[in-house]
From TrEMBL:
Bilayer topology term: Multi-pass membrane protein
Superkingdom of this protein's organism: Eukaryota
Region (Disordered): 58-89
Name used for this protein in its record: Chloride channel protein
Organism: Austrofundulus limnaeus (Annual killifish)
Family that this chain belongs to: Belongs to the chloride channel (TC 2.A.49) family.
Keywords of the record: Antiport, ATP-binding, CBS domain, Chloride, Endosome, Ion transport, Membrane, Nucleotide-binding, Repeat, Transmembrane, Transmembrane helix, Transport
Domain CBS: residue ranges: 679-743, 775-833
Gene: LOC106530626
Amino acid sequence: MFKFWTSLRTYAWDVDGESEVMENPGYCSGSFDGLHHPSDDDDDEMVDIAGATLDFSTTDDVPPLSSADYNEYSSSSRAAGMNSSGPSKLVDPLEDPLPGLGTYEDFNTIDWVREKSKDRDRHREITNKSRQSTVALLHSISDAFSGWLLMLLVGLMAGALAGGIDIAAHWLTDLKEGICLIGFWFNHEHCCWTSNETTFQERDRCPQWQSWAELIAGTSEGASAYIVNYLMYVIWALLFSFLAVTLVRAFAPYACGSGIPEIKTILSGFIIRGYLGKWTLIIKTITLVLAVSSGLSLGKEGPLVHVACCCANILCHLFTKYRKNEAKRREVLSAAAAVGVSVAFGAPIGGVLFSLEEVSYYFPLKTLWRSFFAALVAAFTLRSINPFGNSRLVLFYVEFHAPWHLIELAPFILLGIFGGLWGALFIRANIAWCRRRKSTVLGHYPVVEVLVVAAMTAVLAYPNSYTRMSGAELISELFNDCSLLDSSQLCGYAQPVNMSETSTGNSLADRPAGAGLYTALWQLALALIFKMLMTVITFGMKVPSGLFIPSMAIGAIAGRLLGVGMEQLAYYNHNWLIFKGWCSPGADCITPGLYAMVGAAACLGGVTRMTVSLVVIMFELTGGLEYIVPLMAATMTSKWVADALGREGIYEAHIRLNGYPFLEPKEEFEHSSLAVDVMRPRRGDPALAVLTQDGMTVEEVETLVESTHYSGFPVVVSQESQRLVGFVLRRDLLISIDNARKRQDGIVGASLVAFTEHSPPQPPEAPPFLRLRSILDLSPFTVTDHTPMDITVDIFRKLGLRQCLVTHNGRLLGIITKKDILKHMAQIANRDPDSILFN
């Protein structure tokens, strides 16, 4: 069987014969200051990111080929060569596995076909050996079980980290307002748990918890106390945000942002070394707590997906099957994405569907089962830690009891329209702001930007109780269904005149709005405007920042406002036709908290374009099967409206902004171009650099390799015929020639290089030839020059190709790379084709 050996590096054809260098300010979400190409034989890629130089050869990912390992191997190879039987002995460079052969360099795309072929060969070998001995059979069983063991470890590790993040973020958020005297490590709620001096009206007040005004000024009332608390709130917010951005900048530049755009790109086959490493995990975990606690308009749900994927990547190194195969590792990362959502929302099934719908590029059935198992383990671990002390996995778990009615579908669809409009507006505004950040001096001062935004957020948020509280607490407050014992301002209804209009069952009858509720409504309206503006400029800053919670908060505010309006409309107009028959006086007709939940789903759907997974996540949050139809109606409406205004979700927009080589599987290719229109070389370009199967010397091959920057070369029968034989990788070629010089006596610059199976005829006095057929891919993917590009794009998407050769009647004409397709699609969409920054 042929092995599919295709390129290690996306083939970059440049008219001037020079490598393309990515220049982009900033250091986060792929916004690198510079990507410096090393010399052709140097495998240590260095990336300078906003003053922090990262050496990706020392990260947790498998490095390409370190010089120490190679020198050690070369010396042993040379020693072995001395004991060989003379110059006539032919040495196959791949007789023994060479260090670095078949690995990938940084910022390159993996070859899915080759990786899957390698795994099939490995599995076939293990299966054959298992029939020969008991030890081999046990090894086969352990190999089959290793995937489930890895999923168990990922779930345990991610669940434990998520529990720690929740506890620490809750404590630091409360620390901005005061401190517990019996133990500074207690948050406000835990501090007052054991107190016997709390009252029902002021259940959050106890002597053990003191505000900063009580500690500093000795009083909790008056203007001086308010100013002291205000100043301490702002100071703590600035301190937390400063620590977060400084740690990210100094130790792990990849720890900023949401991480989901990069995870999607990595799962599609792209390699970003260090992005899922141990330093990124440590710093992202710490700074995520600090960023959430600072009060910035961001959430921790998106970054938790990044954290879970870091855990999976690190644990993959414990298992050879996943450490040495990039495609198998991406199956684990797909399951880890499901784990991240599972611990973020307490929604294991929603997490699996999120990974399938939104993140994963390749999701076989086996990955579905393992994702489900890992999400289950993570949710169980988080439940065992019980970070919120309420036996729930999230802070804003709610439970509604009143049914919804058919007439309410109209306001639910209205919320869907609002969510779609907001989603499209947010994406455009945020991308415009991020592009401005990249192209102006603003991007050169990330610390200043974070501090200014944190100061603005804290100063404007403190006077309004709904913006002062954390995003999760705000959502919990908005989802809440009022009861008789509820002291929230949102439950500030006037007492009904007729006392017979009281609660029935678990729910309260609709009541007229009181002064407290009116105050809450205008505060919520101001909070809606504040959240909208601050979320636009916060998402994409150089701190860990998720988008789920801010989007849900905006939708929940809009939904609660609409819900209260519908409730009052029904209360004062029972005799209207739309309310007759189901909303009688004294009945609980409208549940404002349900509207908040539907609005939250609509806005999150409008921003991310999630549908099925979002509905399941919201269903798992509420535990109410009867609310699936309202959620589906609002979510689908928001997607339709947002898609009508722009086809990209926020993550796809950021992928395009950062120039990642990502072929969107949901996007249709509708242009009628052919392969010959996209392939390189174009008319007027230099001829394609090729190798012949037996007519070139070692010196000629080395000269061709050194004079170009291509990552692979087609091999043809001869320069005249141009009949295609196969494809060889630059990296494999260099390693094999260097290895042969040291192991095979007599290999000199004049030695012929042969990619044929039989020895070519040569004079007796000629130096021995170098046979490199072992590194030749004899079955490169090819298309004819008249293949429609929509079929070619489908081949690239479904097979995960990096390049495809173009032929005409068996003669080689050119090559199409993934980058060529992305540039062609950008030109069709009237975008700058040079925005595809990565080679």
